Amino acid sequence: SEYRIVIIGKTGTGKSSLGNSILSYKDDENRPFPSQTSANSVTKTCQRGFVFLKHKKTSLVVIDTPGLFDTNVANDETITEIVKCVALAAPGPNLFLFVLSLKRLTKEDIDSIELLKSTFGKDVLKYAAVVFTCKDELEYKDIQEYIEDSQQFLKDLIFDCGGRHAAICTKKSRAKNYKKDVKGMLDLITHIIESHSYKFYTAEMFKVADTILKKEVETRSEKEPERMKEEIK
Ligand SMILES: Nc1nc2c(ncn2[C@@H]2O[C@H](COP(=O)(O)OP(=O)(O)O)[C@@H](O)[C@H]2O)c(=O)[nH]1
Ligand SMILES: [Mg+2]
């Protein structure tokens, strides 16, 4: 068995850094996702990494996605790529992590979440948690206080995600207690998946993937599927 998570959100919120922090908890070298700190390449396509969780005797598969509202890529292109990323988590992701940065929360973050809801359906929230990155930038006593003082949209989002949320600084050099935070993140992820009885998101996902696949098929000959049907008979 394995646990599958997909990291999504606006570009530059720290998705790849979060994925790398989770995966490198036991092995510093296990940082598969290109991040803005690396010279040129940022995530443009689906990326997959995994770590074996000894104490659970299971693998944790982490899928990183390209960010929405990237100035160089149109959102519908990114959405198509994100759907492919979700397909990489077949038979379905156990958990989506919605990443928001405490450094800067903008209207585009809200729009990103709306876009994901309209792509994957409201069901997606049952399988989602909110992760705040850049905890080192937090000017409040704790994340709870920050949420209480924040816009209604954020409170609603966390409520819709069943209250599941966490804050983390993924930069080792800036974190007060890096190891503890990453461990907390890992524990939260496994806890959510287990308390969901290992259920995973599929319903809307296949509908969406279907439409995108159909678009690709439309460009091909229509006789091909007919011939295949006959062969199956
Ligand atoms: N200070 C601070 N910077 C962060 C944190 N997480 C990510 N960053 C920085 O934010 C930038 C974007 O990170 P990246 O992981 O590439 O974002 P992505 O586009 O969402 O994948 C990089 O320069 C990271 O070093 C954090 O927790 N604290
Ligand atoms: Mg990235």
From TrEMBL:
<keyword id="KW-0547">Nucleotide-binding</keyword>
<dbReference type="InterPro" id="IPR045058">
    <property type="entry name" value="GIMA/IAN/Toc"/>
</dbReference>
<keyword id="KW-0342">GTP-binding</keyword>
<dbReference type="InterPro" id="IPR006703">
    <property type="entry name" value="G_AIG1"/>
</dbReference>
<protein>
    <recommendedName>
        <fullName>AIG1-type G domain-containing protein</fullName>
    </recommendedName>
</protein>
<feature type="domain" description="AIG1-type G">
    <location>
        <begin position="1"/>
        <end position="210"/>
    </location>
</feature>
<comment type="similarity">
    <text>Belongs to the TRAFAC class TrmE-Era-EngA-EngB-Septin-like GTPase superfamily. AIG1/Toc34/Toc159-like paraseptin GTPase family. IAN subfamily.</text>
</comment>
<dbReference type="InterPro" id="IPR027417">
    <property type="entry name" value="P-loop_NTPase"/>
</dbReference>
<dbReference type="GO" id="GO:0005525">
    <property type="term" value="F:GTP binding"/>
</dbReference>
<dbReference type="Pfam" id="PF04548">
    <property type="entry name" value="AIG1"/>
</dbReference>
